[in-house]
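User: Can you write out an input/output pair for a complex, sequences first and structure second?

Assistant: Here is one pair. Inputs:
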Amino acid sequence: MQTRRQFLWLAIAAFCAGRARASDDNAVVLATAEPDPAVSLTSLQVRKLFLGFTVLHAGNALRPVRNRSDALLDKIFLQHVMAMSAETYGRRLLAMTLQQGRQRPVAVYSREQLIEALLGIPHSVSFAWQSDLAGIPAIRAVRTLWRP
Amino acid sequence: MWAETRRAIPLIAAAMLAATATAGETDPTAGSGQGELLFFGSAGTLLQHSDDPAYDTSELIVAMDVLGSWGAGRFRVLGELLLSTEEQELERLQIGWELRPDTYLWLGRFHQPASVWNARHHHGSYLQPSITRPAIEAWEDEAGVLPQHFIGLLAETRLPLGRSSGVSLTAGFGAVASAKEQTVDPLKAFDFWDLEDRQSWSARVALLPDFADDDGIGVIASQSEIDLADTDYVGPATHADLQVLGIFAAWQHGVWRLDSALYAMRANFAGMGGERDEFSAGYLQLKRELGKEISVLGRFEGSAGTAGSSYLALFPDFVEQRSLLGFRWDFMPQQALSAEFSRSMGRDSRFSEFRLQWSVVLP
């Protein structure tokens, strides 16, 4: 009886651990290849960055990279990070360019392009599924943007 | 030839200074510039029916607004060129330096910041909620009574207020370009040396509930010397001092959107013994989204004190009152079809207009 109860608790713990792991993997994180471990952006700074405003870290202007490799990821980015529809976001970016000549974020359409952009563009910042960053030590998740 | 070269000297010098400063920038991204090229295109038709049939008209209007910008580090350059069936004009050419995040100092030719509508939409027809702009925001060569372009310095900043709000401050100083200068001699518009009877300053302050958005409430103020040599004015004055003070509101709440502004103006004719006239004008536009792609809007424009205004007498085509209904269908990404019907009353005329427009932005 004792053994059976221990097995049950063990199974529940394993199930919970698995769920937690799955949640972590499905989280959307802010990612960068910046070597400075102190990179941390507030919600407003992330919004500003992806609208084309200048956001500095250690004196360097961060470069936004919009990850469009996955439709659900893009939807989460618009709803939970930018808090606007795709149409509104598109118009806002156009308005920023029209008003001040600000550049729209570079867009990538695959995991490979994302890794290439983050490693190749100095001070670049993007967002991704946490699981997509596994096994790439040069790219770090600096903040969780969304969890299921 | 020398005169034309002399006019361009300040711009060339500014470009060299900025390039030099950029070369010394410690930001390692400074050398890797980024550019944008946008094309705001539109094609439409206008049918105008006047109370005097002699003024009935129909037009086909095709326009392409080309916007180019390039930036490296803190340096930025921006140009806007409008090509249409009615005019070809270099609207803006500005060289800027970002002193700190969200603070720019620009040199060049701009749209003056005291026009809320134009500072927001410029010539980007696709981004305008309506086909037409309110009469008080009209360009100088489209019966506008306020100077909308100037040459000189422009400073822009946006400061955080609280957790997510902000305050934006924009101020410009320079010379206003008359409509004649803009269309006849584009280089004349960049003449920094000839400030006589053309000096202007303008400013806008806005309280922004969302720091990263342009919506909010605010005040505008400006003072401009209007060179009367370019107008039909007959009298002893060489210029009119035009002072403008205004308030505005731009607000989006759910499916509703409000755009409104009220301007109070005072014109003093120099050399007329202090004679002056005062008038006001404003508009209120309400837009409602009907689903994701369709929206309807209504706009009312009004004015007061216009009847006895010597200043407005210089602009006989100015629309003093207008009621407008509009419809917009965003049928594809970055493309829209719009229709407008309006009834207008000018100084000496009353007319109705129907407009249909397709607008697009590429890429």
